[in-house]
Write a structure and sequence with these properties.
The complex is a heterodimer of chains A (110) and B (113). Chain A has 110 residues and is an all-beta fold. Chain A has strands at 4-7, 10-14, 19-25, 29-37, 43-49, 52-56, 59-64, 69-74, 83-91, 98-100, 104-109. In chain A, the strands form 2 sheets. In chain A, strands 2, 4, 5, 9, 10 and 11 form a 6-stranded mixed β-sheet that branches. Chain A has a 5-stranded antiparallel β-sheet with strand order 1-3-8-7-6, with no helix packed on it. In chain B, the strands form 2 sheets. In chain B, strands 2, 4, 5, 6, 9, 10 and 11 form a 7-stranded mixed β-sheet that branches. A 4-stranded antiparallel β-sheet of chain B has the order 1-3-8-7, with no helix packed on it. Classes of the chains: A mainly beta (110), B mainly beta (113).
Chain lengths: 110, 113
């Protein structure tokens, strides 16, 4: 059983749509990370959060510690948002280790 | 700041050959780590280090060695390459203390034939 689960695994949307990507985890964490990977590209850190909500431009990340669930929202989606979005749980034991979900492939069509 | 510099970007090895993947960061991060990324699987931790002189195994350490002689550098060595090590490898670094994001290198696509 994966310790970090993401849903859906794939999502296709039309430009302008509001998108939600979900992440559930079963381990105790010190923080939850959202990462973005474009096709053939490197990995970029979008958010690190341990409680509440963070916003950066059109991206919003939320976390519910009690329910062990996090969501990444994209408002007014654009084709350049097409990428794989990866959720990762940071170990609570102080080792800084990350446990990764398998990622969600988002395609935004114009 | 260059961030995390990872070299080479591409490499083809023959089975049994050895090589070193280089990783360097200029952010004075204490934590550095190596991951492999395979189709259909999430990133998996190979080895990590919480500071110079300190390394530890991750989830999939077999066939790989690391060392951390300086804060900046964290090379990954493949001792005797096998086709199962064909993958994309990422190096990452982070500050410690639970309040720092991760910075990833651009990745190395390794093919072992």
């Amino acid at each position: 059983k994966n310790e970090v689960e993401q849903s859906p695994q794939n999502l296709t949307a039309q430009e302008g749509e509001f998108i939600t990507i979900n992440c559930s985890y079963s381990v105790g964490i010190s923080a939850l990370h959202w990462l973005q990977q474009h096709p053939g590209g490197g990995i970029v850190s979008l958010f690190m959060l341990s409680s509440g909500k963070k916003k950066h431009g059109r991206l919003i990340a939320t976390i519910n510690i009690q329910e062990k669930h996090s969501s990444l929202h994209i408002t007014a989606s654009h084709p350049r948002d097409s990428a794989v979005y990866i959720c990762a749980a940071q170990d609570r034991g102080g080792s800084e280790k990350l446990v990764f979900g398998k990622g969600m492939k988002l395609t935004v069509n114009p | 700041n260059a961030g995390v510099t990872q070299t080479p970007k591409f490499q083809v090895l023959k089975t049994g050959q050895s090589m070193t993947l280089q990783c360097a960061q200029d952010m004075n991060h204490e934590y550095m780590s190596w991951y492999r990324q395979d189709p259909g699987m999430g990133l998996r931790l190979i080895h990590y280090s919480v500071g110079a002189g300190i390394t530890d195994q991750g989830e999939v350490p077999n066939g790989y060695n690391v060392s951390r002689s300086t804060t900046e550098d964290f090379p990954l060595r493949l001792l005797s390459a096998a086709p199962s090590q064909t993958s994309v490898y990422f190096c990452a670094s982070s500050g410690t203390g639970g309040n720092y994001g991760y910075t990833f290198g651009s990745g190395t696509r390794l093919t072992v034939v």
